[in-house]
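Field: COMPLEX_INPUT
Field: COMPONENT_COUNT = two
Field: RESIDUE_TOTAL = 673
Field: MODE = joint
Values follow.
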Amino acid sequence: MRAFRNFTGLVAPLDKNNVDTDQIIPKQFLKAVVRTGLGAGLFFSWRFGADGAEIPDFVLNQARYRGASILVAGANFGCGSSREHAVWALDDYGFRAVIAPSFADIFRNNCLKNGFLPVALEASVVRRIMDGAIEREGYRLAIDLEGQVVADEHGLRESFGIEPFYKQRLLEGLDDIGLTLAHSKEIEAYERAHPSPYPTP
Amino acid sequence: MTAKTLFEKIWDEHVVYQESGQPTLLYIDLHLIHEVTSPQAFEGLRTAGRKVRAPERTFGTLDHNVPTTDRTLPISDPESAAQVEAMQRNCPEFGIPLFALGAREQGIVHVIGPELGLTQPGMTIVCGDSHTSTHGAFGALAFGVGTSEVEHVLATQCLWQVKPKTLEIWVEGRLGPGVTAKDLILGIIGKIKTDGATGHAIEYRGPTISALSMEERMTVCNMSIEAGARAGMVSPDEKTVDYLRGRRYAPQGAAFERAAQRWLSFGTDPGARFDSSHRFQAEQFAPQVTWGTNPAMVVEVTGKVPDPKTMPDEASRAAAARALEYMGLTAGTPITEVKVDRVFIGSCTNSRLSDLKAAAAVARGRNVARGVHAMVVPGSQQVKAEAEALGLDRIFKEAGFEWRESGCSMCLGMNPDILKPQERCASTSNRNFEGRQGPGGRTHLVSPAMAAAAAVEGHFVDLRELDVKPLG
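Field: COMPLEX_OUTPUT
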């Protein structure tokens, strides 16, 4: 997995609660058999009209947010389907982190498996960042995972929580499966005590 | 001994490795896979030269993108065909049984798991699909995972999990006539909202839940994810045991009786504590219809499209206004005046035999309204065969419904079954997100009987006003 340590980038504001994974990456993009190239489908129905042309109002289509790499959004971001394609699409488009007051569980898990940082902050802090991104052209944030701090150039400095286990994996870009297989003895012991309940084929 | 919840008993029994302050390495008893969220996982295994650790605990089906029309024809969409082919290559290569197109076991993953007796009480069950919570109806801890976790389970049969909190949803009283398990869960989500259970495993409890059939419990548990829950479960009881007796992958003979005793021991102990609790009275729920673009945007069929101005805060006012615009609805319109173009009866929420019987009871002797296109998609080939044995296919076809082959179909529209832009659909599925059933499509979630009633009337109707006799 790619490591995540420090990151500074342009912030794009998506001022909505309950952004579901069907919006992040619609079903027509789930037919891929690879993890790459999904950025083209990110927020597809919000980015493009029926004629295929960009919808100019949509935040990611505005010139000032081109090249944004941090998305700030409302509560319960990533709710709905378990599709990891949502994270692959955000990542492929160029985002490295999402900031929101809260995340849906499966989406958050999927982020943590892809070196993609979900930063949960108090709703009032998210509001400040959202307003910063709306009001100040070129508004950037620095995210320091080691210090667990998000900061801007205008005095905002807020710490965020993350489980030490996931933080370490992100910082080092560790492969989950490799780590788990280091516990093969425990898994074998468990399996000896709990044989498969199904008839062997 | 301390009183424990169903969740705690299953969790504790599946701990493989635990360090203080760290996530738990949890053993997974059953891994269900399908064609859409598994190809990248198999590719990962291949690249790393890894095997599937427990192919005997892994089962595959084709459901998400498969056509529901004539199965003897090739799949016309090349991308769907490629995903199906990948599955048909990956499963044998890694020693995993696959219920492919044409197999009598094929069907929606959350329908066939229980139907084949794969789903059993006390198990941990995962699948790369958020509606895996369905299996919790059997007193299993079942949850959806992403593709990286699918790969992790394939390689290790384990998952690192942070222990969720427990949430009790207690329901007592009697559901009124025409009020189904679907109405109950939609009503509950309407009250606790789409993130009301985030970070929690729900256990549905109380006399109303005990009185539900296994299929009704599956409908309730299925939609737990729509409240943000990690899992939804019901303590196993005699109904659970009776359902599993004689199923193909359930233990047989004396082994079954021993298993049944063990299964029943997983039930939540009297006096066990939950981290939080909600209590509901069954009589408070009427048939439900969603009006917006998430499942919590729901009203009773006797109600009206709500006015965004009446919402409590700016964010919900904006979300409601956007939802009404997307749905093409005007605040204040009675729900029963909302006309439908399409009707979809199916999905892992409502495509089991009892669902089809409820819809057929409404369809019998009636006709699909002019201008409405209605289809019934059984959850599995077994459900289809059982329904046909009861003559339900004939009732539906005579009334003007299409009768299809099994799959996820228009619940998520990955196959050709999709809405056109602005088409309005009464759907028995689980999500009414923007574009869920097709770009620009407008989805209203309802129970199977309510969907059938909308099909024959051409608009939403209070089912309780129709003269419906249950099928024998």
